[in-house]
């Protein structure tokens, strides 16, 4: 029984860490590679951030949560927006509500959204936005983007192998939980499951794989390897693994 708990906790931590890292790398690429005037403007509006966080939380499943954590880690949304996401989110239970109470579920989501926006604004009123990403923003401004030398460095190789392995695990269902097949029986395509999210992130993983292949050595080493894999990945994995194991 103890071994089973360890295995399930590791699978959960591996899954969450992989999805969060994919989102972080894609956001890093968009923010750096595209000059991102919209993102710079959006990052100055706490109201828009709270509304976005509330909206992301309303999305059934965990996708909105992964996106919000990635945006917060990059300093692109406020703490209030992160809190708003957590309040508006029903997680995978949203699928259960849509299947069992489809007439009441939208009203529940709408109520949670309104509550999340209100609490998000109040939170931002009392909690100042952290400045832990200032160094990253300065590095982003000095980035050479995708221009420069390209070679098969050991950092690039490790990330490519890890990403391919993670995508294979997603597509083949190696990371699914035992409870993930509990909701079945709906006619046609079953959108009330985690499977669609796995395929979507596998597709995003292919996009990231292409970026890993075309990025310059300096870009890949600095922004992908040092900033995300070395700095953030161990923290995300250990916190997730420890929390799930404790629960």
What would your notes on this structure say?
The protein has helices at residues 2-33, 37-42, 46-58, 63-73, 79-88, 93-100, 105-126, 134-141, 154-172, 195-214, 217-230, 233-246. The protein has 247 residues and is mainly alpha-helical. It has 12 helices and no strands.
Question: What's this, in brief?
Answer:
The protein has 247 residues and is an all-alpha fold.
How large, in whole angstroms, is the Cα Rg?
A: 19 Å
Q: How does the helix and strand content classify structurally?
A: mainly alpha
Low-pLDDT runs:
131-144, 180-189
Assembly state (oligomeric): single chain
Helix fraction? over 70%
Mean pLDDT: 79
Work out the strand percent. Answer: under 5%
Counted by DSSP, the helix tally is 12
- What distance lies between the first and last C-alpha atoms, to the nearest angstrom? 15 Å
Q: What's the helix-strand series? A: HHHHHHHHHHHH
**Major beta-sheet overview:** none
List keywords for this structure.
247 residues, mainly alpha, 72% helix, 0% strand
Task: Give the SSE map.
Layout: H1 2-33, H2 37-42, H3 46-58, H4 63-73, H5 79-88, H6 93-100, H7 105-126, H8 134-141, H9 154-172, H10 195-214, H11 217-230, H12 233-246
């Amino acid at each position: 029984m103890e071994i089973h708990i360890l295995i399930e906790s590791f699978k959960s931590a591996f899954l969450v860490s992989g999805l969060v890292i994919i989102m972080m790398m894609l956001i890093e690429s968009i923010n750096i590679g595209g000059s991102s005037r919209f993102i710079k403007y959006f990052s100055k509006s706490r109201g828009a951030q709270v509304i976005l966080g509330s909206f992301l939380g309303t999305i059934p499943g965990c996708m909105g949560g992964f996106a919000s954590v990635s945006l917060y880690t990059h300093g692109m949304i406020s703490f209030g927006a992160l809190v708003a996401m957590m309040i508006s989110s029903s997680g995978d239970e949203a699928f259960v509500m849509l299947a069992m109470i489809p007439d009441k579920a939208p009203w529940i989501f709408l109520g949670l959204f309104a509550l999340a926006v209100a609490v998000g604004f109040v939170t931002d009123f009392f909690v100042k936005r952290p400045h832990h990403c200032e160094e990253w923003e300065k590095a982003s401004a000095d980035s050479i983007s995708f221009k420069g030398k390209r070679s098969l460095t050991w950092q690039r190789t490790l990330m490519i192998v890890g990403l391919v392995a993670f995508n294979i695990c997603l597509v083949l269902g190696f990371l699914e939980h035992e409870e993930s097949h509990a909701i079945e029986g709906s006619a046609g395509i079953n959108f009330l499951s985690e499977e669609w999210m796995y395929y979507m992130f596998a597709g995003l993983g292919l996009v990231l794989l292409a970026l890993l292949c075309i990025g310059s050595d300096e870009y890949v080493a600095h922004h992908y390897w040092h900033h995300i894999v070395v700095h953030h990945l161990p923290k995300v994995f250990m916190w997730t693994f420890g929390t799930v194991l404790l629960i």
